[in-house]
Design goal:
three-stranded parallel β-sheet, single chain, 20 helices, binds beta-D-glucopyranose, 11% strand, 33% helix, TIM Barrel, six-stranded mixed β-sheet
């Protein structure tokens, strides 16, 4: 099913809210399979020591665990590889499979031998591994609005992840980004909660399969609860001027806009949810009992477990120590609160079930044990957290007498395969939005005799992939084997019937019959991607101007994690395609350029003509006189 066209009308916000409310009325609640083993779990929890329970709720980043014996002696329940925590041996599938296996073996040596659930940010394919298929980031999929396709992508991602042994991904992001200056805007499907509610649960179904028991299924994580995309501009701006900020709206607005996909994800059986770093009216979500326990668990009936964000627990400031300045910053430059023990108490009592952290994991374990012994965190709360974690491990078949915990060898041959790339290429094509085509320049059914390609993004796989690709913030250039840049794909179509030349700045284009300029922004992720100014770079604008000055008809392709301010380029270009962050399969963009695929994408965000139209961090409902309105997208005749 495609999203009904009437939703692209100006009434979409009203309709969106109505759809979301209808969704809630259909009562969320996790499916019965998630709690089916509660009797067995009760017996296990009764056998566990306090130390074993606390170990179960602790999730250190692999990069911080120097002594692998800690996994056994502390009976850790989970580990993760953060955005840049790669195996030392390298990033090939075999490196990851070995890395994972080594850690899992240590877990099995603990007294109870409860396996680890190992997590990673596979947010657009298994994006930390060399040779994995990298799919479009969510903003593009929001323009494709095709839940079946999104489910298929998630299914493939799960298969590539299980090929490496890992069973859990911190995806989907179901935030509803309201300010495109936010460096995580591309992780969201849309500024419209109805689109997010349509696609988020589809990812859960794709990753987890019907009930998580499959050997090709991966536990999903809806994140970041709640309002991560609705934060206010921080006074002073600077890096992270919106990220991890404060959402200042009343409860009705918070629910209407930001609850979006959560009820649907819970109903689809999402195994885990990640509370947000951000705050709601000054209170950090990661320590807010009303949000975590009253709304998520009690009202919406979520029976899986809550995983804290990366060192988020470090940042809670207790009411008693509110006055004290943060004590220090950790290695990632994040704030650390002075009273860590109080933070842990607040977060666990608010309903956090597992804590993701780095170097402080031993301190965390000691402090949480003390808090239980001192009666500040009830044992019942710890038992509940452990029960929820074990539910997921049971559902995944990890608690069977002879569980199959190892990298799925049957899935390894299809890792990064042509079949997977084909689906990605289709997804890329469906996500491209045709914004402009003068004199029916597009589709270019047959490339003319000479084509000149220019722009910063024409031959840059890393720029196509964006952040969270082979590293936390992503990188430029040939990051990963396989895949096709847009220039490669144009050359492929040209074969030996057209001549294709490339200069990034557009020089030497004279005499060509067609110009194609791939403009956009370089890779970034959270914090570092917050940008006040979303104008195209001077170099990219100059490349477009150079081709126009030489008299060529010019197609502009925009590679970006959000709408950019096109300035003069909006006028100069004869045709414009928004390609978002398509990932490794650049050929999908060229499929739309040539008409090999139809132009069907519709904007999932309004596209401003000037940055002043984006009110800083405000919960805007409509944009006055945008360059292209929400839902806009031309098609071919
Ligand atoms: C991000 C999460 C991510 C986690 C683990 C955090 O900084 O906010 O989205 O899942 O790191 O890498
Ligand atoms: C990690 C990410 C994490 C970030 C948080 C990075 O070093 O690789 O996974 O999200 O720190 O600041």
């Amino acid at each position: 099913m495609k999203f009904p066209p009437f939703v692209f009308s100006t009434q979409r916000n009203v309709l969106g809210i109505v759809l979301v409310i209808l969704g809630h009325a259909a009562m969320a609640a996790s499916p019965a399979w998630l709690t089916a083993n509660d009797d067995k779990i009760k017996a296990i929890v009764e056998k566990m020591t306090l130390a074993e329970k606390v170990g179960q709720v602790t999730q250190p980043d692999s990069g911080s665990v120097e002594d692998l014996d800690d996994i056994t002696t502390l009976a850790l329940g989970s580990m993760l590889s953060g955005g840049s925590s790669d195996p030392e041996s390298g990033n090939k599938l075999s490196d990851w499979a070995e890395f994972y296996t080594e850690r899992q073996k240590r877990a099995l040596k603990s007294r109870l031998g409860i396996p680890l659930i190992y997590g990673v940010d596979a947010v657009h394919g298994h994006n930390n591994l060399l040779g994995a298929v990298v799919f479009p980031h969510n903003i593009g999929l929001g323009c494709a609005r095709n839940p079946q396709l999104v489910e298929e992508i998630a299914r493939i991602t799960a298969r590539e992840v299980r090929a490496s042994g890992i069973q859990w991904t911190f995806a989907p992001s179901v935030g509803v980004p309201r300010d495109i200056r936010w460096g995580r805007a591309y992780e969201g499907f849309s500024e419209d909660p109805a689109v997010v509610a349509l696609l988020g649960p589809a990812v859960v179904r794709g990753l987890q399969g019907a009930d998580l028991s499959g050997k090709e299924s991966v536990a999903a994580c809806a994140k970041h609860f709640i309002g991560d995309g609705g934060t206010e501009f921080k006074p002073g701006g600077g890096e992270g001027m919106l990220d991890q900020g404060d959402v200042r709206v009343d409860e009705a607005t918070l629910r209407a806009i930001h609850l979006g996909a959560y009820p649907g994800a819970i109903k689809a059986g999402v195994a885990t949810i990640m509370p947000s770093y951000s705050s709601w009216n000054g209170v950090k979500c990661s320590g807010n009992k009303q949000l975590l326990t009253d709304i998520l668990k009690n009202e919406l009936g979520f029976e899986g477990f809550l995983i804290s964000d990366y060192n988020a627990t470090d940042q809670l400031v207790s009411p008693e120590t509110d006055e004290s300045a943060p004590e220090s910053n950790n290695a990632a430059g994040q704030v650390r609160s002075a009273d860590y023990k109080k933070c842990i108490e607040i977060s666990i009592n608010a309903g956090m079930d597992m804590v993701m952290l780095t170097d402080r994991y031993k301190e965390f374990i000691t402090m949480l044990e003390e808090l239980v012994e001192e009666g500040k965190v009830p044992m019942a709360r710890i038992d509940d957290a452990v029960t929820r974690i074990l539910r997921v491990k049971f559902a995944m078949g990890m608690m069977e007498a002879e569980p199959d915990l190892w990298p799925n060898k049957e899935l390894q041959p299809e890792f990064g395969s042509e079949a997977h790339r084909k689906v990605a290429r289709q997804a890329v094509a469906e996500s491209v939005v045709l914004l402009k085509t003068e004199n029916a320049l597009l589709p270019v059914k047959k490339l003319p005799r000479r084509v000149h390609v220019a722009g910063s993004g024409a031959d840059d796989l890393g720029m196509q992939c964006g952040g969270w690709t082979l590293g936390w913030q992503g990188d430029r250039g040939d990051l990963t084997p396989g895949g096709t840049t847009i220039l490669d794909a144009i050359k492929e179509v040209a074969g030996n019937t057209s001549e294709v030349n490339f200069t990034a700045d557009g020089s030497k284009c004279e005499g060509a019959d067609l110009g194609i300029v791939v403009v956009g922004e370089g890779p970034y992720a959270e914090m570092k991607g917050d940008r006040y100014d979303l104008a195209l770079s001077a170099e990219d604008s100059a490349a477009v101007a150079a081709l126009k000055a030489a008299g060529l008809p010019v197609v502009v392709i925009v590679l970006s994690g959000r709408p950019m301010i096109l300035g003069d380029v909006a006028e100069q270009a004869d045709a414009i395609l928004a390609a978002w962050l398509p990932g490794t399969e650049g050929a999908g963009v060229v499929d739309v350029l040539t008409g090999a695929a139809p132009a069907t994408g519709k904007l999932s965000f309004a596209w401003p003509r000037s940055i002043d139209q984006v009110p800083l961090g405000h919960q805007r409902e409509t944009m006055e006189n945008p360059l292209y309105p929400f839902g806009f997208g031309l098609g071919y005749e």
